[in-house]
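Hi everyone, sorry if this is the wrong subforum. Our group has a chain we'd like a structural model of before ordering constructs, and none of us has done structure prediction before. Sequence below.
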Amino acid sequence: MSNESAKTARAEWGTRFGFLMAMIGAMVGVGNIWRFPFVTGENGGGAFILAFLILLFLIMIPGLIAEVALGRYAGKGVIGSIREATGSGTAVGLGLIVIIVNIALMSYYSPVIGWTLYYMLHSFMFTFTGAEFEAGAFLGDLFADPLTMFALHTVVMGLIAAILYLGITKGVERVVVYAVPALVIALAAIAIRALTLPGASEGLAFTFNVEWEFLLMASTWQEALAQALFSTGLGWGIAITVGSYLREYDDVPLGGGVFTAVGEASIGVLAAFAIFPLVFAFGVDPATGAGLTFEALPQVFMEMSAGGLWAIVFFTGFFLAAITSGLVITEVGVTTVAEETRLSRGKAVLAVCGLIWLIGIPSAYSPDILEFGDDTFALWGLPLATIAILIAVGWFMGPEKLRVLSVNQNSGIYVGRWWNVAVKYVVPVVMAAIMVAFAIDFYGADIMIAGMVVIVLVPIVSFAVMKYVEGNREAPTTAEPTGGDD
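Answer:
Right subforum, don't worry. Here is the predicted structure as tokens:
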């Protein structure tokens, strides 16, 4: 089959709304409601949010535009798109870096989706408005029950496999167009009630007062970088994959870059309004860790009129948004495996979901392992994967070529040559500087050692595997790269 015929047969998003909701769906739930609150609480509140917003607009918009544009230009999954940028050869290993990081991240995110499923089921039993309900004990009982955690992880990966089996428009798009709006409505209602509780003003002060000394800490910037990458999906291969299903007349800069970044910032602020007033109103430690959201949020429903119903709306929306993130994250591996092997889509779904389920078992059994995995792959793996993509675009393909042929194609916002400089120099240098500063500050610590293992080992494995694979490909289907253009 020729390249052109392969492109013609490829599925597309049915509507622009479906594409935008897929981009938003990949970040809402993962980035904002679960991870954003506890890393904010651990890193100085308002100072962390300021660093997060700076990096969101400095790095994420140019990066997301690059990923979506590359995906639409190539019309392929991560490895196929990277091959389109670099040409066949060992450098295609840049794409495998992204896939490895993506699967590692999804392996510990699946158990978190399981937590949302558990809370959703209990919302239908009106557990959170019962007279005997105690949020900390409820979460502690769940974490102390590894069999239930394992079962939830298994159910989640089974659901994801079933939905992905249906395909991109029948499966993913039908879920995201309802899940994301429902969650935002419920979150807004909770924020309104939370702001009226005694002590809410302390939560707002914690969230928006900037303690400037935190901005001098490398850890604040490294965590903010990881959060921005985690929230927007940059470096996961999500934007490449979602962009590969984008229709040629859709707008890359507006939808893929600006809309996603602005949407992320807006949902983040809304989540802050909802969660931190609750944290202070109910005396929860802001530095509780990964369980912060699950300990703080359920306490508001007893204070709300028709709280039981609001709990159902919120946790149903939270679960749907969380599993939407899981769907889009897993689709990255499925699309690539289906394209790069002889497996059918159905077999690719089973292979990828089975691998994630297997790797995720330790995180399902232990929240401590889950947190260590998050520290390792969010802090180090995501920046590594993002830099890998930017190297492919900035130094192999050349940003000017992509800017002319894909970024500004049918665009409502013209992207100038500043973007070339940002993708090739500014974004990689800023990210590398933050990582180096963090490594120096935490020299010899477990988190630094684990990060160095990821930084060194993942590229070595990726380049070795792709050197072998590319050397044995029977008939390369892509043109060799034309080289840099600026």
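For your construct planning: Residues 307-340 form the longest helix (34 residues). The radius of gyration is 22 Å.
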